[in-house]
Amino acid sequence: MDSTKMERIIDSIPASVLQLLTGNYSFEFKRHRMLLEIQQKVNLYNETFHHLRKTLSDVEVLRRENIDLTAANLQLTYLASEREKVAPGAMKLKLKGKEKEVRVERSDLTPPSGSDSGEGSGETRANNPKSISIRSRGFLTGETNQPRRLRVRTPNPGQEKGEEGELEVEMEVFSQGMEKTELCNKWRGTGADGCPYGDQCRFAHGVEELRPVLRHPRYKTQVCRMFSTDTGCPYGHRCHFRHVGPGEFV
After folding, report:
1. What is the pTM of this model?
2. N or C: which end of the chain has fewer CB within 10 A?
């Protein structure tokens, strides 16, 4: 169909019909465009809603992690406070009624001038007590954190064998740990220069650094059952029971 015939057909259609057809087409076009805009807004709403849900989920996870960290912090604070309560306390020594530093008051414990050689100092270190144990009646009463004034007799290494050379020391003892409660084995053998840890050593370098240990009232009052076995007692001098042979019972 050529253009002339098409124009004739259009011209033959009444004007009212042409206006109606044009209006219907415009309405459908506007309706389709509005539906498309509505669908785009719905998609944007759904995307925003999912993003909000994900954000709320992340916030909940962070809140729980914060609660866990707060609980862990409280637990660490509690443990730190408990550790401070049982930390090694102060200890004061009084010799002959004069309150001075132990190093000054114990100057009379040095061996005589004739035994200043290395062998003499080695024997002096070997004669020192390995540790100082004090039996406490209040061991199980819950009062071990309170200071106690105790008098302890320690051997005087400057005296010869056969002479009474015990030195009486008055001590104010607090609840303490195991640090500086035993003499250093390397110090006993070679002196302070032989210990690689120096001042950082957890063991005592000399009797003046030795700290007394509060023991149970029944400490060393019963015989160790493992001492007489073939393998012996694995705890050694740290055993809380007596190490005596079969013929040494009193």
Report:
1. 0.29
2. C
